[in-house]
Amino acid sequence: MTSSPRLLFLLPLFTALLCAGSLAAFSQAQSGVPVKQNAAAPAAAQSDNPRRTPVVRVVEEAGPAVVSIVSARPAAQTPFAMDQLQRFLGLPDGQQSQKQATTRSLGSGVIIDGAKGYVLTNAHVISGAAQITARLHDGREFQASLVGADPDIDLAVLRLELPKGPRPTLPQARMGDSSELMIGEPVIAIGNPFGLSHTVTTGVISAVNRSVRTKQTFIAGLIQTDAAINPGNSGGPLLNILGQVVGINAAVYSKGEGLGFAIPINNARRVLEELIATGRVAHIWLGLLGENMGQDQAAYFGLDRLGGMVVTDVLPKTPAEAAGIKPGDALLGIGDYTVQDKSQFLALLLNYSRGDTIRVKLRRGRAPFEVTLTPQVLDRQASLALLGWRWGFTPTGAAASGLPVAGVIVGEVRANGPGARLGLKPGDVVLQVGSSRTASEADLLGAFYRYQMHTTLILSVQRGGQTYNVRMKI
User: Which class is domain 380-473?
Assistant: First the structure.
């Protein structure tokens, strides 16, 4: 190996400095002067250190409770189905490599109960995962099981699989109150962006009660922040300056910088008990259906803007009927929110739960009026009944097995209903509705809640080993 002339020139100087340092230390020892050590400062001095800002203290306290989540899922459940991936790569069926059989995605989470090992994260972080691994800041790794998830609210609860015997001590984050957030107050985001574990970013609360439309759903009541939130931050905590969790980071607006969104922790706490107890959130409804407002309809109601929805159906023995709402009324607001369309109407209902009271703003003709009602819980039986009435078919309750992608078997098909007009038959397997995969009955009912007001839907249906994408008119 040839040495650099510059390096050869510096070596004597480097050696001389080392020797000088050693001689100085020896001289100090001989004279009784103590040698300075790089020991940590006393606790009192550390607390007075101006570099230990409130942000540093928040990270020191809450950082250990943040986990990196690695989700392994079959490639067929990723945005590129395996057969599409094979064709894209020019591979014949069955010749994909082992590396393509499973994909991994990264996300974040926060431990909300250290004693029981509960972790709160986004539903989309672990959607379709066959195996979930959580890595703590101190390097410990645990397998995690899914306790419950709701893709409409985009929240999920995991439980770390702790070893038997003496239970390990786990950190736990403190919960805050997102109703007390102030515009402009500082916040800290901790997460796993692009696989860079426990990355810290800071910013302020830019706005509250924001609504965001994604390809899959519409989410209302979000916190907006300019703290950097990138892919992999999803599911991590948004913390106030007291170190309390005030939100769960959920999304970033890809078309602009400084636009991140988090689910308020109060919304999360509202559904946590249901997720832990039953694995799902029982959605609520008012007992009405509607369509988006048209320009002519807006003029009829005397509105100066296009927005809201027109009530088309009011079902009997429902809160809407009891409150006096009628088909033809214009529904313009819920609580303090303005309703833009039917998708936002359903998203706004997700901010409420059983027992809540809801103020609904309407117009009948050009006369405004307001009603207050208590929503009904849309449980499994009610959902199945509505599914059969609205879409014209019901599932058998069993998921189909032995398929490349799991689906729900069609049971009864109502004569002259939308399903019958489409040509559905008992034994057909529904693989997907709209953008929602239907691997179980719960998935199908979730898709029904999401698309209950749609008048046309694209279904992916399997019959006799063949898969068809068909349009169902309702």
Answer: mainly beta
